[in-house]
Automatic annotation (TrEMBL):
Residues 68-93 are annotated as: Disordered. InterPro entries: Curli_assmbl/transp-comp_CsgG. This is CsgG/HfaB family protein. The lineage of its organism: Bacteria, Pseudomonadati, Pseudomonadota, Gammaproteobacteria, Oceanospirillales. Residues 1-19 form the signal peptide. Pfam families: CsgG (PF03783). Residues 76-93 have a biased composition (Polar residues).
Amino acid sequence: MRILLTALLCLWLTTPALAGVETRTVQAEATGIDRENAIFNALGDAVRQVHGARVEASRELRSSMERLARHGSDGGASSTTLRTGNESRTRVQSQGLISGYRVLGVTPAAGGGQRARLEVRVPVYRVPGSGAQSNRRRLAVYPVAIDTPRLRLAGESLGAGDASRRLTQAIVQAFVASRRFSVLERDMRQAIEAEQGFVASGRAGLAQQAMLGRELGADYLVVARLTELDMDLREVESSLTGERSHQGEGVATLEARVVVPATGQVMWSHTLSTDLASLGIDAPGSRGFSQRVFDALGSELAFQALNVIYPLRVVESQGERLVLNQGGVIVKPGQRWAVYDIGKAYSDPYHGESLGPRESWSAEVEITRVADRVAYARVVKGEVDGDGQVLRRLDATGQATREAERAALRGTRERVCLPMDPC
């Protein structure tokens, strides 16, 4: 078997430490037909120790036979094979930078040639950010497919490309804000490829080339398809009071799946069919009606996925005040959530898969304030002791709960709800 070793090495002779680049020192050993080849092969071994290698192996059977025909005196014939052959080939590729090396020794190798021992310094690019981020699963959101010829918001038609870009951005924004996954870029790759091309061209410092070839693959893919989008806000006037308000019309339907790219296994699937009231949109607002719809759809879809995998948890409780481990756009002020104590964990008796723990109701809370990383809530019913409890959403907008409370107060002998009352 003949092994071809190709190591693509760039010698980096300057050693200033750059942000995101650290130097790892390794010892490597290899043989070669002479001193120079032995050192070169040892440098390749050092790079492989740090960055790994790509191995391409193939085996080709080539048979070339020459036959000698013989004829006997009895008229019979026979043939003899003179030569056959086969060939196998393996190619190993490794690529990386070397900031320097020191020769520890070069000695004769058994069987001929030279054996070199080196101490090699290999720069390694580290992704910016906290170490906790590296513990997250990696997720990529692919552009939303549009599967409907009619896209209308507030009476205006939208192009499929525009709707796909804006909805994809809303989904990415919601997952990033959740801080549950490391979200990878997949729909705006032109800028990434342009920057990598600039670094590889040599116009950037050679040290910065340590970042090349370090892109990450996703553990999970989010794929979605918009099959219906026709929504509008219509202004209505009360026949009794003359008060003007807005009433939502139409629906949006968004199909989504979370898939493992390595196997194609579907880990989660959901069809979100919703209206403006369920999204909490009851007035045009200052950000623009269409943008609010896209943001709300992206936030709701991300919530539905995260609620199964990473439900909200209580991280601190002080009397009636709670701190939750989720902020951003997933949680909104005024929402009502149920708090459950965690109990015994269950598993499926057929295949042993976890069914999750027992959840026992302990309280109902209302979100009072939302920050980037956490949310704050107050207990409106029940009691919360300690932390670690899981939360399940009861009312996405809080509107239904507030209406029920006002209805319970209005018209009773104990209290009549007047315009100046908080009810």
